[in-house]
Amino acid sequence: MDTAEREIRKSRCLARLARHIGQERAIGMDxxxxxxxxxxVRHKINDTRQLRTLITSLRREGVPIAxxxxxxxxxxxxxxxxxxxxxxxxxxxxxxxRALALAASLSGTTLDEYLGQIRMNLxxxxxxxxxxxxxxxxxGQDAPMLTTGQIDGxxx
Length: 156
Prior knowledge:
By secondary structure, the protein is mostly helical. Helix content is 62%, strand content 4%. It is built from eight helices and two strands. The two termini are 40 Å apart.
């Protein structure tokens, strides 16, 4: 998809989402895909990958596209009030923290130490401090790992 076509699809997506304000008015992914791309969805996961990529791109540009998933399918919508956007941000934060807690456990370290390592890597700090932390992780000299209950409680 070239740049001009991508911009047209973004505009179509936003125009359609403008009619779906608030969680209770969410539009199904398959319906939105058919509107934006003009094709029928045959396989909900594979066929809608382009739409999910487009939604991610719009979110990175700062468009507050929220989503909801439930047994009836859920969908995408624009938040009606600040509280809906706050809830969406909270869900992203929770999902990210759970993923980081799992990565920390798999690395043999605590979440706090793992976040410290990430912080140092982002700052470009490497060398002895990171090597020392990694050696401690491997030797089992860390504080206890987060339990599943603690990880599940991160979204509260």
